[in-house]
Amino acid sequence: MDFLQRLTKALDRPLFPWKGLIVGFSVTQYAFETFLSWRQYKILQEKKPPKTLENEVSQEVFDKSQDYGRAKAKFGFFSGIYGQIQNLGFIYFDILPKLWRITGLLPAQYFSARFSGEITHTLVFFFAFNLISTIMSTPLSYYSTFVLEEKFGFNKSNLKLWLTDMAKGQMLTVVLGTPFMSAFLWIIQKTGNQFFYYLWLFGIGVQIFAITVYPILILPLFNKLSPLEDGPLKVGVEALAKRLDFPLKELHVIDGSKRSAHSNAYFYGLPWKKHIVIYDTLIEKSNPEEVVAVLSHELGHWSLSHTTKLFLIGQVHMFYIFALFSCFINNRSLYQSFGFHDEYPIIIGFILFSDALAPMDTVLKLLMNILSRKYEFEADAFAQKLGYSTELAKSLIKLQIQNLSTMNADWMYASYHYSHPILPERLAAIGYYGDKISSETKDDEKPIKTADREL
Q1: How deeply is 192 buried, as exposed, middle or buried, from its count of CB atoms within 10 A (0-12, 13-18, 19+)?
Q2: From residue 325, how far is each of 115, 299, 338 by CA, in Å?
């Protein structure tokens, strides 16, 4: 506690150039990430696949994969500079203090004195800020879905579904954001300088609540879960779960194909009751043995306690964030640098604190990706020990081909951005040296693209 108090005093210096420092952090991070993207773009201009994949993918598939990678990279360059201009514009034109003052007019004019305090004001500000951010990101989202992904055959959504999803997202922000944001502010207001202990416990409770409620109330708003039909796949998955003493409660199939050709498989639930979810696109394009091999990798994360370890790391990180925030919450020099001279709202302090923490977050991202790649190798080795090395390798190769995923990566770019090893590294680690797999598909077949978290 003495350390936090000394740090609080050291950070709150009159006329300290917080705005310049945070702008410097932002520009430096943007320049660094752009440099990494440029290095990766040079890899995407290569004409031949890595030697380890020469016998696994055709030249045609490799060329398409490179085209797709370059298209995404160009979009990334544009969205990066767009986001940077947006961020600097918010700072230069003092959007935060202006928006705070404007949103304060609503509760002051229309709500009773009981409901016109900082919590109500913050809720109005938060929803307005979120709406503005959504509107500003909408053009990029539209282009990504209906131009870039459409061009390479991955998009299965339509404008109505896309707009409906956006509306549902805003609705959930209001429904869930209101009680959680109110509780966040109330805890800080009522518990004094030791608020980070109570905020941390509250955060753990929210995570447990989300694990329990998400598949029951939120997921059905966007997707449909159906029981996995009887057959070889169900028998294989149940046998795998029994073999590992995995507490399987239910097997579901999710209709991921209604929006895109993305494919994945995952599990969720409390420690004593787990559910496995398999995308319909994965089932459609893979044989049962390959799907079971993919799940042997996923359940390897559970068996090796990767999920538990990452959860515990997350709790330590959350405590560290809240404890460090206690050093900034009353930092008047920080508020005043950004145009807040008479009011010091908690939510503004947290936003500015998050910006000031950017360098540490960059280092943490690098370290977490290193750890994540280590866990992926271990999960692959786990599947290999179960006897699924060939099936897993074939499934990974098939997904790589059908997804047009990047076949190679610059080492600096991969170290910073990738939570999973690239395919050649994974195949080498499990010792797979197989025959060439054909990239030809039937006319009515669609490519599969993995979800944000790769298999």
Answers
A1: exposed
A2: 26, 36, 17
Query: Is 22:356 a contact under the CB 8 Å cutoff?
Result: yes
Whole-angstrom distance, CA of residue 370 vs CA of residue 418: 8
The pairs formed by 83-92 with CB atoms below 8 angstroms and a separation of 24 or more are 84/26, 84/27, 84/30, 86/136, 87/26, 88/23, 88/26, 88/27, 91/19, 91/22, 91/23, 91/338
Consecutive H or E run containing 127: helix 118-143
Assessment of whether the complete model's pTM goes beyond 0.85:
yes
Q: How far is CA 230 from CA 158, 351, 360, in A?
A: 32, 50, 49
**Nearest of 360, 357, 358, 376 to residue 414 by alpha carbon:** 376
pLDDT digits (tens, 9 = 90+) for 269-291: 888 889 999 999 889 888 999 99
> Which of 78, 61, 65 lies closest to 144, judged by CA?
78
**∠ Cα 312 317 318 (to 5°):** 95
Encode pLDDT of 81-140 as tens digits. 999 999 999 999 999 999 999 999 887 787 776 777 899 999 999 999 999 999 999 999
Q: Give CA–CA dist 136/139, Å, rounded.
A: 7
Specify the DSSP class assigned to residue 193.
G
Written as six digits, the tokens of 128 are 């307005």
The catalytic residues are 298, 380
Residue closest to 23 by CA, chosen among 119, 77, 104, 90: 90
State how far the Cα of 407 lies from the Cα of 412, in Å rounded to an integer.
16
Cα dihedral sign, 337-338-344-346: negative
Is residue 110 exposed (0-12), middle (13-18) or buried (19+ Cβ within 10 Å)?
exposed
> Residues of 341-380 as b/e, b for ≥16 C-beta within 10 angstroms?
eeebbbbbbbebbebbbeeeebeeeeeebeebbebbeebb
Contact, 276 vs 380, CB < 8 A?
A: no
